[in-house]
Design brief:
Low-confidence stretches: none
Number of strands: 19
CATH architecture: 4-Layer Sandwich
Largest sheet: 10 strands, antiparallel
Distance between the termini: 27 Å
Structural class: alpha+beta
CATH class: Alpha Beta
CATH superfamily: Anthranilate synthase
Radius of gyration: 21 Å
Length: about 375
């Protein structure tokens, strides 16, 4: 499908108020879409269907599913040269906004110092007026700005409209092999990946890594964790550890792994349940799908045994594997009327500084603002 036809189909589907998602995974050069044929609201709690899931932060709520068998699917080549008019974003932040977030961080530090928590991720919502409110055009802008992120535009008339460009993989499964990542710690990108990390960021990242290794080690085999590395996500840097292993598909399903992973300490804190309750009690707003997860699940992928397409006999024995690619919903926004509600947060440990945490959220918000 040509790029023009692809984006025209998204526009028509949106104008018809029908559910759809369009997305592009990191560095794939391909944009895909799933266009649901009616406006039925489907949920999943077992994650054994084939389709696209959109799950909230609260893991006790079911995820929304766009079923493949009730949708039309298209793809096109990503446009790296999409041109759009940039506007300066009027900063709506006030001293009260800063004070409120810093006070929230101080509450988190106090809870950690009193051994109620080891880490907690605290966030805020920022609202800005849009110069361009067409979500399809904003999606194209995000694709152009962030080719190395998972970029998406998700819409259901009964739920709302979300867009984002997230750097964090929650889970990738292909057959019986899986991978995930521990992503934590943040500092502003200054033109180099050769940077020095403070104790606070190193500790924050270690908490996430240790948690994932412990939980996944109980469910999987051949678990491996790579060395910590520094990666860039737009205008910020993070610490990342890749974690890989194999699954016994007869004993462990996608649901079991997701229950172990979500929400990770990278988006909630540690201990998991205590951190979640602290967030629900003190953030004073509903995260909804921010820090939830999204992506395609149980998509059948066929791989020929022989790369020579003319060898029909061998190709008859092609292997079929179920593939799932899920991402944490970070660097995201919800569109309502002509406004974008941008969600940003950061991990708090005993070494956190409330003012520094405020400016970290300001820098993260710029990831989205730079494309609006």
């Amino acid at each position: 499908m040509t790029s023009k036809d692809f984006f025209d189909s998204l526009q028509m589907h949106y104008q018809s108020q029908l559910p759809f998602v369009a997305y592009s995974a990191s560095s794939t050069q391909v944009v895909k879409s799933i266009l649901q044929k009616d406006n039925t609201l489907h949920y999943t709690s077992e994650f054994n269907e084939s389709g696209f899931v959109f799950a909230p932060f609260d893991h006790q709520q079911d995820a929304i599913l766009f079923p493949i068998d009730q949708s039309d699917c298209f793809e096109t080549k990503a446009e790296s040269d999409f041109k759009f008019e940039r506007h300066s974003i009027e900063d709506q932040l006030t001293e009260e906004d800063q004070e409120n977030h810093m006070n929230l961080v101080l509450k988190g530090i106090f809870a950690i110092e009193n051994d109620e928590l080891q880490k907690v991720v605290l966030s805020r919502k920022e609202t800005i007026r849009l110069h361009e409110s067409n979500p399809i055009i904003i999606f194209q802008q995000l694709l152009s700005c962030y080719p190395n992120a998972f970029v998406y535009c998700w819409y259901h008339p009964k739920i709302g409209l979300w867009l984002g460009a997230t750097p964090e993989t929650l889970l990738k499964v292909k057959g019986n092999r899986f991978s995930t990542m521990a992503l934590a710690g943040t500092q502003t990108y200054q033109g180099t990946l050769d940077v020095r990390w403070q104790t606070k960021e190193l500790e924050e990242q270690k908490i996430v890594t240790d948690y994932l290794v412990d939980r996944l080690g109980q469910l999987t085999e051949n678990l491996q964790a790579t060395e910590v590395q520094t990666i860039r996500a737009a205008n910020v840097l993070h610490l990342k550890t890749d974690i890989l292993g194999t699954l016994d598909n007869q004993k462990v399903g996608l649901k079991n792994i997701l229950e172990a992973l979500h929400p990770t300490p990278a988006v909630s804190g540690f201990p998991k349940d205590s951190a979640k309750q602290f967030i629900l009690k003190n953030e004073n707003y509903n995260r909804e799908f921010y820090t939830g997860f999204l992506g395609a699940i149980n998509i059948k992928e066929t791989k020929p045994r022989n790369s020579n397409r003319r060898n029909v006999e061998n190709n008859a024995y092609a292997t079929v594997k179920a593939v799932s690619n899920l991402y944490v919903n970070l660097r995201c926004m919800q569109l309502k009327n002509n406004y974008a509600h941008i969600y940003v947060g950061g991990g708090i440990t005993k070494d956190s500084n409330s003012e520094a945490e405020w400016y970290e959220t300001v820098n993260k918000a710029m990831t989205i603002k730079n494309c609006l």
